[in-house]
Structure formats: C-alpha cells, structure tokens
Amino acid sequence: MNAITVNNLSKYFKIAKQGKKSRKSKEIQKSKDKTVQAIDNISFVVKEREIFGFLGPNGAGKTTTIRSLTGVLKPTKGRIKIFGEDIWNHPIPIKQIIGNVPEMANVYMDLTALQNLTFIGELYGIHKKENLNRAEILLKKFELFEKRHFKAKKYSKGMKQRLLLCMALMNKPKLLFLDEPVSGLDIQSARVIKQLIKDYNKRGMTIFLTTHDMGVANELCDRIAIINNGHIIRLDTPDNLKKLTQDYLAIDCYYENAQQIKGIKNLMTVKEVQEIKDGYHIIVEDVNDALHEIVNHAKLNNLKITQLNTHQPTLEDAFLKIIEGGG
Ligand SMILES: Nc1ncnc2c1ncn2[C@@H]1O[C@H](COP(=O)(O)OP(=O)(O)O)[C@@H](O)[C@H]1O
Ligand SMILES: [Mg+2]
C-alpha cells in the first residue's frame, strides 16, 4: 500500500486587496482580490518505507503541501489518502499514526524538555509508566537526556528542533512529516537529526520531508519531487536527477608534453575535447569508462599523465538546470 496518495491537489489563497473601504458592494471588492495558487494540480504517491523529499525554492508551495497532507489546511481541490484512507473523512485515526514537525512549530517554553514530552504522551493517552519510558528513550537518542530538566526556553534552536522531533515521535508514528527539518540549525543538531531520520526509516518509518537544500535532499531521500511555483516539475531518484546534467560529465587530464598528444578526440567514450594548459578538458559519456580508455591510451602511446580530475554533476547542477528549464 502507498503511504500517501495525492490526486490533483490544488490550494489557492485569496488575498484581499488593500483599498479604500467604500460602502459599495462586497462583490466589487471580491473581484479585486488576488488569488495566489500556492499549489496547482499536483499528483504523486509516496511508497511505504521510503524517504520522500519535496525540494524547491522559497515560496514554491512546500509548506502548503505538507499542511494539506497533515490535515491542517483544507485544500481547494483534490484528494489525499494516507495509508488508503481519506484524510478529511478519517482525520482522527490518521492523526494517531502520523507524526508532524511543522515549519513554524514551537515547544512549550515554560515546561522542561521531559515535561514537554510527557505532556504530549498524555494527550495521546499513553499510560504513565510507558509515557515516561518513551520520553526518556527519545531524549537519549536525540542527545538531550542530560538537559531533560532544563526549561525549553533555555534550549538553543537546534535543541528545540530535536525536542520537536521527539514530540512528534511520542506516538510511534508510521509516517513522519518534517517541514525543513534542519534548516538554519547548528552542525551537531543537523547531524543528529539526519542520522535519526535514516535510522527510523531503516526500521520501517515512512518519511516525507521538505527542504530547499539539495544537499539534504541528496543525502536523505530515496526519491525527490522538485516543486516550483506550485507545480511538480520533476520526480525521480537523486541519481536520475543528477543524470539530467550528463553534459557536465568531464575529465581534466594533464600530461607531460601535452602539446604532442594526438588521438584523444577519437576515443570511443569522448564527446568533446578542449585544450587547457598542460592538458585537455574532456567531455565524456561515462566517467568510469572514459577513465579506463584515457589511461589505456596513455599506456599504449607511452604518455605520462601528471594529473587527472573528474567533474561529476551535483544535485545542485540538476536542480538549477531543471528550474531554469522550467521542467
Ligand atoms: N496563508 C497564506 N495566505 C496567503 N498566501 C499564502 C499563505 N500561505 C502560503 N501562501 C503563499 O503560497 C505560496 C507558497 O507558499 P509556501 O507553501 O509557504 O512555500 P514554501 O514552503 O515552498 O516556501 C507563496 O507564494 C506564499 O506566499
Ligand atoms: Mg516552507
């Protein structure tokens, strides 16, 4: 079964235009209202046990999507199913099996970290002993146990975010939603969070996360939807997304006596050759095959290679290419 199925989801926001308030009918005012299409007719599925990423620039529609999927925001159109159930028809049982860390969430500042967690546990009706047990296990995992009796207002931003994750995990969700989970955090918190996202996923949890950071998407996600202006413009694995920038696969090869070298252009795997100082910038089909061929060519012709550098495309290259090309 799919963890999430989204069909033709749209969310439009009406923004009232500021203007002179006249007594003239509301109709005129309404016609002046601006509509923002935060998400426009998107469809996708998230498979059970995958880490699925929503990657896009600011204002792309990521938060609006996640708020719709978690039943916080009613979509304008479309259907959302969580483990086969319509979120709007069965909100309570669904909310019991999901965890959610919203973008602008906050902890209860005047409670200690431990109290924050046991309070959430009580809301879920978890038995007292089990509640404390779960809270302590989570605090240890997220490296907060030592400071569990500190009031949350004493916590740094990264510690608060770790605590928010603990709160979202108190009900042992099957599906976890994270909106920009490591954005703006210190390195230690980001590391702990990324590692635990991987660990929980390995043990079977499905994870849906948003990020504007391709490094994060690349590191964590099995599949990535790239969203821009409310549209999904690509949906694929990080490797396949990177392949879109194949043109950028290149090897810089430096030789002793580079000027006298011939025949590189005729190698099977070479697409194009540009001369650079003491060597060649070689654009290739496949880096691995080309490396073998270039080294063989050097051996056969008694050439001495002094240096070899490869250029692999990054997800960032792919992202920019896709966004610039409009998909
Ligand atoms: N409550 C709202 N009222 C009006 N416009 C909104 C509201 N929430 C989001 N938007 C608009 O919808 C678009 C998508 O926003 P959002 O989903 O927050 O993007 P992201 O999370 O990708 O940065 C933006 O243009 C934003 O200004
Ligand atoms: Mg957002």
List the helices and strands and how they pair.
Layout lengths: L1 E14 L10 H7 L1 E14 L3 E5 L6 H8 L7 E6 L2 E2 L4 H7 E4 L11 H11 L4 H14 L15 H13 L5 E5 L7 H16 L3 E6 L2 H7 L2 E6 L2 E6 L1 H6 L6 E6 L14 E7 L2 E6 L2 H14 L4 E7 L3 H11 L2
Parallel strand pairs: 3-8, 3-9, 6-7, 7-8
Antiparallel strand pairs: 1-2, 1-4, 4-5, 9-10, 11-13, 11-14, 12-13
Helix pairs in contact: 4-5, 6-7
**Shape type:** globular
Per DSSP E runs of 2 or more residues, the count of β-strands stands at: 14
SS class: alpha/beta
CA-atom Rg in angstroms: 26 Å
Helix content: 25-40%
Largest sheet: 6 strands, mixed
How much of the sequence lies in strands comes to: 25-35%
Task: List bound small molecules.
Answer: adenosine-5'-diphosphate, magnesium ion
Number of helices: 11
Can you walk me through this structure?
Helix content is 35%, strand content 29%. It is an alpha/beta fold and 327 residues long. It folds into 2 domains: 242 residues, 3-Layer(aba) Sandwich (Rossmann fold); 62 residues. A 6-stranded mixed β-sheet has the order 6-7-8-3-9-10, sandwiched between helices. β9 and β10 form a beta hairpin. It starts with a strand and ends with a helix. The model has no long low-confidence stretch (mean pLDDT 91). Adenosine-5'-diphosphate (ADP) binds next to β1, β2 and α2. Adenosine-5'-diphosphate binds next to β1, β2 and α2.
Structural features:
single chain; about 325 residues; 14 strands; six-stranded mixed β-sheet; binds magnesium ion; globular; about 30% strand; 2 domains; alpha/beta; Rossmann fold
